[in-house]
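Repro:
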Amino acid sequence: MAPSILKKVTAASRSKTTERRKAKRKSVKLLTAFRYLNANQELHTGFVRTLNLSTVGALLESPDEFKVGEPLSIEFLLDNNRIAQADVRVTRVTKEDKFYHIAVEFTRVSTRARRLIEQQISQ
């Protein structure tokens, strides 16, 4: 009886640590511009660093905190000196040392921008 319990625990532990990504991600270091309107309709703009990129989202790094659910418009400066623009929504924010890591998912990406992002990921 004990061995079957051990197997179940081991299998459960493995499933918790296995990443289930919707798309392949690539580690990058890209300068990324952002802008958004806050609840008071005040425009905020600035720059963040993109740490990883996929066709469905990205992980950004910033000294500033963002709120989960916040919509942003971002522009990635890609390695080929082209710009890919996307509208995103913040899905997760974690504090890492002096910076925040901001996970975003794409809500609107043009066909051209998606193609540029795919080229960046495949390099």
